[in-house]
Each structure stands twice: as C-alpha cells, then as structure tokens.
Amino acid sequence: MTETLHALPASVRGVFDTVQSRNPHEPEFQQAVHEVLDSIAPVLDSHPQFVEAGIVERLVEPERQIMFRVPWVDDAGSLQVNRGYRVQFSSVLGPYKGGLRFHPSVNLSIIKFLGFEQIFKNALTGQGIGGGKGGSDFDPHGKSDAEVMRFCQSFMNELYRHLGEHTDVPAGDIGVGGREIGYLFGQYRKITNRHESGMFTGKGVQWGGAEVRTEATGYGAVFFAQDMLAVHGESFDGKRVAVSGSGNVAIYAIEKSYQLGATPVTASDSSGYVHDENGIDLALLRRIKEVERGRISAYVAERPNATFVEGATPWEVPVDIALPSATQNELDEHDAYRLIAGGVRAVAEGANMPSTPGAVAMFQEAGVLFGPGKAANAGGVATSALEMSQNAARQRWSFDDSEARLRTIMQNVHDSAFAAAEKYGRPGDYVLGANAAGFERVAHAMLAQGII
Ligand code: NDP
Ligand code: 2IT
C-alpha cells in the first residue's frame, strides 16, 4: 500500500502520533488504527468520559503480545525454524477470540492489525468475545500433510499455555483450515490431557465443531451485501458478482451468491484470476482447491470458455457486486476506479481490510454501497461464538437452525452499523457505523471495569 493516510481530526491525532512512533515499522497496524480513529472522533466528542478514562490510549496497546520459536523437521530431514505469534488485544467483552494465519507474509504488523480489528468486529456481533489474532510465517503450500502436522504440533507446544476456553480461543484464517485445526487441537489435547472443546473453534463437526462454521464467513458477507441492497429495494437476483480468492471465504461467498440467484463470474489466488462468464463451476473450483490443493490456473484446462489472467486481480471485470475475499490491500484506487466505471453497486469485504483507504473513499464518494470487513465478514467469528455456546452446553444445533441464527446475527450487525452511521450524521457510511457501534460497546465495558 503506497497511499498516504489523510490527516485525522485534532481529537485523535495525538493518539495516532503515539501509535506511529511506538510501532514505526507496522504499516498495516497503523492503517487499521487510522481508520478506527477517524471513525470514532465523533463518538469521543459526545462521550467525554471515554476521553477522561483514556479508553483509546489503552485500546491501541495490546493486553499481551507473544512471539515464539517454532522449530520442526521437514520430510528431507532438515531443520526449519518459523516464528509464531499470538497478540491478545482485548478481553474486556470475553476471552480473546480470533483466528490463526499461516502465510509467509505474516509479521507482527499484520497480526496486530487483524487483532485490533477483531476487537470491534467481535463487539459488533453482540456476543461475549474479546479480540486477538495469531499465526506464523509458515507456508502450508506445497508441504506434505506430515510436515503440516509436525509444524502444527511444534506451534502448539508453545501456544497451548496461553489458550483455554475462558482465556483465548483461536480459529482458522488464511492457511489454517480443517486439516490444521485438527492437528492443533490434537496436540493441545495431548499436552493438557483435556478434551477441551471450547478452546478452539472451526473444529470438525464430528468432534465438537459447529454446523455452518465452515460456510459462515462467505455466507455472512453475502447476507451483509443483501441487507445493504435491501435498504434500496435491490437484491442479488440476476446480478453478476466478482469474488477474489478461492479459499474458505470465497468458496462459500460463491455458493450463497448462486443460492440468491446471482452469477459469480470470477475467483482468484495469488497467481491470478479466472473469469468464467457462464458462472464459476463451484464443484470444479472446490476440487482444485480443497482436494488437489492446486493453483487456480488448472480451472481453465477443464472450462475452455473461461480465461485465466496471470498476475492480475478480478476487479477489471465489470460486475454489479464485488466480494473481495482474499487478503489485505488487494483492491486499490485503480481497482476501485475500474469497478465504479463498470457499474458496481455494492462491495462487501469477505477479507479483512482488502480495500485500501483510497479505494474505500472512492466507493463512498461514488455512492457505491460499501460494507467493511469488520461488519461484512463478522459471520465467521459470530458462528465461532455459537460453536462455543454449543460446546459449553454440550449441544449440537442443526444446519438450518445454525444458518437461521447466522442470518439474524448478520441482519443485526448490518442494522447496528446502519443506525450508528445515522446517529453520528453520516447515513449510509458503514465504515463509520461499524467502527462507532463496535467501539461504543467496548468503551462502555472498559469504563465499567476500571483502569486495568
Ligand atoms: P484461505 O487460506 O482459505 O484462502 C485464502 C485465499 O486468498 C486463497 O485463494 C489465497 O491464494 C488468497 N490469498 C492469500 N494471500 C494472498 C495474497 N497475498 N495475494 C493474493 N491472494 C492471496 O483463507 P480464508 O478464505 O479463510 O481467508 C480469506 C480472507 O478472509 C482473509 O483476509 C481472512 O483474514 C478473512 N477472514 C476469514 C475468516 C474465516 O472464517 N476463515 C473470517 C473473517 C475473515 P493462495 O492460495 O495463492 O495464497
Ligand atoms: O478474521 C476473522 O474474523 C477470523 N478469521 C475468524 C475468527 C474466529 O475466531 O472465528
């Protein structure tokens, strides 16, 4: 991201200066904090008690940051060393909650931006979950199952002491899916001699996992877009959708788009994107990505009318709805320009912070309905909280019941963000609305619990 961040309102500039000087080499963290501070300036103006109690000064500093060595031996017998992270940002609303990301780009800045955003996202779900995030610079691509298992076991050999159903409850994120969660959970059980279902979410449905958790983030992002469109009497029916990514979030965003009568025409990975004007063949995409763990270029070998565009993102394809579902800063001002020129009506972020600040501003100025990740992808963590409830009560809810609960939660997330935007004089600004609504809940809880 090469854009410069605009000047903040005077009331929050001092905090941001401190964040910049204290975290000088953390551009993603600074970007995430900048956006929240910009949004909550009017909340602080109307709540002097938040300012007096130093709520913001405390929130930008994680409660605890853990970094650790992860040694493991690859299939060739060579020693490998990765770095592990868990940033426990805020436990004021509940145990730290947020995913683990395994990707070579992972560093402290990325884990902190994700953990910081998680505080407000989790607050917005209305459930009792705090904010945290973790991961490693380990790259699961091209590794054997045995290598992934040995890595996960070594990672958990340190992380286990920081977790627990009332302390910190991880889940998946980029590079951490069902396979990794199985190995991580297994090692935790071995070390602690506890089958503690509530210490991890996204587990297999046969051993404590919740129905719909796998689908929840992608489905939820579509529900959020559906709710934004509904305010204007519009729907998914007959619309063309661009999706980026081809992982967990993207696959279920595509599935739900179809169920609502739309046609998703793109999917991508870090090598490029495929454009299939007849609609993405979801079964084929799932086979390539979930079974073969292959590259997206393999798609066009079996769908000759589709095209693979190497080294590009899907945003050059004119569509009605865009669902960025890959990674941070994957959609910049140039991409926003092309989407707007192509007539895009709604953008809902399945990924965390996929749009750059300049792209967000362009969408909002052009009157495009824009749902920020903090709200639009909250269905994943909200369903994780449902998994925690089921584990605590030793219950299992059906798929249909769970999806109905997710649907209601996403409507509530939408309505909270919508109402907060109106309350603070920026109707339709879901960025301000999501940040303000999430922040208000966290700030009131911090005020009640004292200076800690
Ligand atoms: P997956 O690992 O299942 O899929 C990630 C997808 O994004 C892959 O197609 C991957 O391609 C692509 N991608 C990853 N990094 C990059 C990159 N640097 N450049 C281009 N493409 C990239 O992860 P998820 O689907 O779970 O996560 C996707 C996004 O959604 C992330 O931002 C995550 O934080 C967010 N999210 C996930 C939730 C969940 O429940 N899983 C909940 C809320 C948000 P490749 O294989 O080539 O790397
Ligand atoms: O970014 C996210 O919200 C997630 N990766 C899911 C977190 C969770 O604990 O379910």
Describe the structure.
- The protein has 452 residues and is of the alpha/beta class.
- It contains 17 helices and 13 strands.
- The protein has three domains: 1-61 and 439-452, no CATH class; 64-207, Rossmann fold, CATH 3.40.50; 216-367, NAD(P)-binding Rossmann-like Domain (Rossmann fold, 3-Layer(aba) Sandwich), CATH 3.40.50.
- Helix 1 runs antiparallel to helix 2 and helix 5 packs across helix 17 (430-449).
- The longest helix has 25 residues, at 399-423.
- The structure holds NADPH dihydro-nicotinamide-adenine-dinucleotide phosphate and (2Z)-2-iminopentanedioic acid.
- NADPH dihydro-nicotinamide-adenine-dinucleotide phosphate binds at residues 103, 105, 172-175, 177, 217, 245-250, 269-270, 325-327, 330, 350-352, 377, 380.
List keywords for this structure.
globular; Rossmann fold; binds NADPH dihydro-nicotinamide-adenine-dinucleotide phosphate; binds (2Z)-2-iminopentanedioic acid; 3 domains; 13 strands; 452 residues; single chain; alpha/beta
Topology:
Blueprint: H1 10-22, H2 27-46, H3 48-52, H4 55-59, E1 64-73, E2 79-90, E3 96-102, H5 108-124, E4 131-136, H6 145-159, E5 168-171, H7 178-192, H8 213-231, E6 240-243, H9 248-259, E7 263-264, E8 266-269, E9 272-275, H10 282-291, H11 298-302, E10 307-310, E11 321-323, H12 333-341, E12 346-348, H13 357-365, E13 369-371, H14 373-376, H15 378-393, H16 399-423, H17 430-449
Parallel strand pairs: 3-4, 3-5, 6-7, 6-11, 11-12, 12-13
Antiparallel strand pairs: 1-2, 2-4, 8-9, 9-10
Helix pairs in contact: 1-2, 2-5, 2-17, 5-17, 6-7, 8-9, 8-15, 8-16, 12-13, 15-16, 16-17
Bound molecules: NADPH dihydro-nicotinamide-adenine-dinucleotide phosphate and (2Z)-2-iminopentanedioic acid.
